[in-house]
Design brief:
Layout lengths: L2 H21 L6 E4 L2 E4 H26 L5 H24 L5 H23 L8 H18 L12 H23 L1 H8 L2
Antiparallel strand pairs: 1-2
Helix pairs in contact: 1-2, 1-3, 2-3, 3-4, 3-5, 4-6, 5-6
């Protein structure tokens, strides 16, 4: 259990905390910004989500720089990412800030690519994160944060930033998923011939 893995585990432990502050109504005040309303709990949840998202880059950097890459880390890191994003998306559906079908598209893509990676491993291949996949992650985080903040501060000028960011996240999620399967189609076809 090295430092990088400990940071990844900390990200996993932050997941239920994000959900609790996002979904449970604590009587600790509200903030009104234009037409939008935010609870203090939602602000706390957003801060914790951003902190957790930042640790994703930190643990990977430490693991590579300090040569701490382990099989446990290879398993925990994508698991932590998927838990964080999935929890946030489902919570946002519950808050009626995200359409359920959008959450389903994003989550389904994550499961599909994870399945592809598992097939690749059985064939002795490792599918590294692509630049498109990394872009997808950044856009998803921006969209989730904007939804958690209920489009603040853009709500003051009636600019639908959250909606635009969410549509971009869905589109890039689908494109990156198709890209992974297209670039690794030989792995899939190899398993079909055996």
């Amino acid at each position: 259990m090295n430092l990088a893995n400990k940071i990844t585990l900390a990200r996993i432990f932050l997941v239920p905390i994000v959900m609790i502050f996002l979904l449970f109504r604590f009587d600790i005040g509200e903030i009104h910004v234009g037409a939008a309303k935010l609870t203090a709990g939602e602000l706390i949840a957003t801060f914790i989500f951003i902190l957790a998202a930042v640790t994703d880059g930190v643990d990977g950097y430490i693991a590579r720089r300090k040569k701490m890459v382990t099989n446990l880390g290879k398993f925990l890191d994508p698991l932590a990412d998927k838990l964080l994003v999935t929890t946030a998306l489902i919570s946002l559906v519950e808050l009626q800030r995200l359409e359920a079908w959008m959450a389903i598209v994003i989550i389904s893509r994550e499961f599909a690519v994870t399945g592809l990676r598992m097939i690749a491993v059985t064939e002795g291949h490792v599918i590294a994160a692509s630049p498109l996949g990394k872009l997808k992650t950044i856009i998803q985080i921006v969209a989730i944060v904007s939804l958690m903040l209920n489009n603040v501060p853009f709500s003051t000028i009636s600019f639908p930033f959250s909606m635009i960011a969410t549509w971009l996240a869905v589109i890039i999620t689908v494109i990156s998923g198709v890209d992974y399967f297209y670039k690794n189609r030989k792995i899939v076809s190899l398993t079909n011939t055996q």
